[in-house]
Amino acid sequence: MAITVKIDNPDLEKQLIEFVKQQKQDLEEITIEALTNFIDLFHKRKKFNFKKKNPIEHSRKIEYIDDEDLSNVKPYSYIEDSGEYIHNLRREKRR
């Protein structure tokens, strides 16, 4: 397989030539090493690891202080036929 790299930036090209001279390696070897490292970055993406906690040990009961009596509150008490009510709701949602 042959890979051709075209560099349109003269400054970057100069930096690459200087880097190759400093490393005392062939451009091909440096390019292969750079591509290998670049590909390895995507394979080694670290996932977050965290300890799972027992929900029973780490939960607590929320207690409310009620001042008013809500025993007479009955939500949806105005609905006489629940099947018809749901049917109408679905029909309205489709419109």
Mean pLDDT across residues: 84
Along the chain, the helix and strand elements come as HHH
Radius of gyration: 34 Å
Number of strands: 0
Approximately how much helix is present in the residues?
40-55%
* Discrete helix count: 3
- Sheet with the most strands? none
Share of residues in strands: under 5%
* Uncertain residue segments: none
The rough form would be described as elongated
Measured between the Cα atoms of the first and last residue, the distance is: 58 Å
Give the class from helix and strand content and strand pairing. Answer: mainly alpha
Describe this structure in words.
- This protein has 95 residues and is an all-alpha fold.
- Helix content is 46%, strand content 0%.
- The model has no long low-confidence stretch (mean pLDDT 84).
Task: Give me the secondary-structure topology.
Blueprint (H helix, E strand, L loop, with lengths): L9 H14 L3 H17 L38 H13 L1
